[in-house]
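Running this now, will post back.
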Amino acid sequence: MGKVESDDEASARLEAALYSAGRPLTTEELIKASGTESRSKTLALMTNLVKRTKSAFKAIEVASLPDGSYVFQLKPEYNTVIRKYASKPILPTATLKTLSYIAYMQPISSKQLVEIRGSGVYMHLRHLRQLDYIEHQNVGRMKIYTTTDKFQKYFGIQGDKDALKQKLFTKVRTHMQPTPAQTEPAIQA
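Update: finished.
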């Protein structure tokens, strides 16, 4: 593939790559997609694309993520509005459940996740790490997982991890009718 000469063509290629990827793209991937072979040129085109998207659209955006990647996405505040129209979920349900356990229980070990979610959790963890929604630290032979800034930005969550836990708890509590067993305090083992 030869070098692209026109800014319009390079910008169109960036739009096409971001739209079709369905995931964040790194600067290196965007340089390849643009055909400019130039980091500074590609970043200038991305800055312009972000501005144009903000002025042209109300519900979708091209967002720059904390790790330097870019994503074409629905603005987080519209996620619940369109859920019933979405043709496929952002994440498979099982992976989303694993992510919710990590978000609520963090920091949480892989051993605890396997006990709660089963051995399929390893595939979920791989997928979530690829999306950069989670990170881990090695403590001895154990991996301890937490969510990332990218996770918080992508899902429209502001604040620290305690605020996230409170938000998740409130959301779950308002969507569930408690049974008598749920209203009694749990016995700690």
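The chain has two domains: 7-78, 93-177. More later if anyone needs it.
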